[in-house]
Amino acid sequence: MSFSFRRPSPRVLGVGAALVTVLMWTAFIVVARASAHRTLTPFDIAFMRFVGAGVVLLPVGWWMVRRASAQGGRATSWLGLSPLSARLTVTVGLLAGIAYSCLAYSGFYFAPATHASVLMPGTLPLFTTLVAAWVLRDRITPSRAVGLALILCGDLLVGGASLLQAFGGGTVWMGDLMFMAAAFCWANYTVVARRHGLAAVPATVAVSVFALLGFVPAYALLAASGVVTSHLLQAPWQELLFQGVGSVVISGITFTQMVRHFGPVRSTMITSLVPGLSAMGAVWLLGEPLHWNLLAGLLLVTAGIVFGVRAVAPPPGAARA
Questions:
Q1: Residue 5 falls within a domain, yes or no?
Q2: In whole numbers, what is the pLDDT of the chain averaged over residues?
Q3: Number of H helices, E strands in the chain
Q4: Of 116, 108, 96, 93, whose CA–CA distance to 41 is shortest?
Q5: d(CA 93, CA 215)
Q6: % helix / strand / coil in the chain, to the nearest 5?
């Protein structure tokens, strides 16, 4: 008896990538908040994540560049380690690597995970739609506009309350702005990946390679010279190992695969489960309160994302991608 392996269809790969991405993003929000205010600073966490992902993917990038050269084609690379060109490597590395991670991790030191649950996945489809309309000339249909309006109302319920607290000396609004800025960076990465048709693995390798070579040495030098505060030497090895072996590699590959199948706007809207799952996880696992405005904002954001997903038709050629 012989068995043959049948390659999954593009739809199966796309749906599977979407499910893994949702689970990874949910865990990222809860775990990042749980790690805040412990030993490591936000930039320490980014440092360890970049080291962990870079050590895994740097040899992969080197192998991909060498394989392309051996096949006789013109190998496009950055320093012979990233399978993308220098311009693309720097672009995706800054957007999806350094800027996104530093902003997101810093936000958790000011705002709770329930805020991140609403604002990061909530503003992502809003920003992605606007950037895609500008760069890719995607048309914003009336039904999609309604979904985005619901998302915006939900964000205002959460972020607006934090901004009002700023007059009383609160700092939560700072974390909220960082969450939205992180979502804006990821939205731009999503559109760049779609515009250039980036494959999942090469894009993730490029992000990790640039973060490893661009951020890690500079931060280590600044920390060693005392210019920035770092607690890497004081942190227990268990915490360093946990942060270093994160979900950066897996979520990066699955998200880019999802973009290739569903397109940038539908991909960011498919994350409709992330706000609810991560908010409930923060309440149950971290003991964070769920006030009425957070619950109302969560419901509006989730409804807006689901409405947008169901209202948007699949982009032409999505299955062929």
A1: no
A2: 80
A3: 14, 0
A4: 108
A5: 10
A6: 75, 0, 25
Structural domain contains residue 4:
no
pTM tops 0.85, yes or no: no
CA 36 to CA 42: how far, in whole Å? 8
| Nearest CA-CA partner of 73 in 64, 62, 81, 82 | 64
Q: Could you tell me if 232 and 47 are in contact, meaning their C-beta atoms sit under 8 angstroms apart?
A: yes
Average pLDDT over residues 53-74: 84
Tens digit of each residue's pLDDT (9 = 90 or more) over 107-119: 988 888 888 888 8
For 272, residues 6+ apart whose C-beta sits below 8 A from its C-beta are 121, 302, 305, 306, 309
Count of domains for the chain? 1
Q: What is the DSSP secondary structure assignment for residue 95, as one 8-state letter?
A: I
**229: helix, strand or coil:** coil
If you write DSSP's letter for every residue of 106-127 in order, what string do you get? HHTTTS-HHHHHHHHHHHHHHH
181 neighbors 163 (Cβ within 8 angstroms): no
Does residue 319 form part of some domain? no
* Angle 175-237-107 from CA coordinates, rounded to 5°: 5
State pLDDT tens for residues 149-190: 888 888 788 777 666 766 666 788 899 899 999 999 999 999
The residue range of the domain holding 163 is 11-311
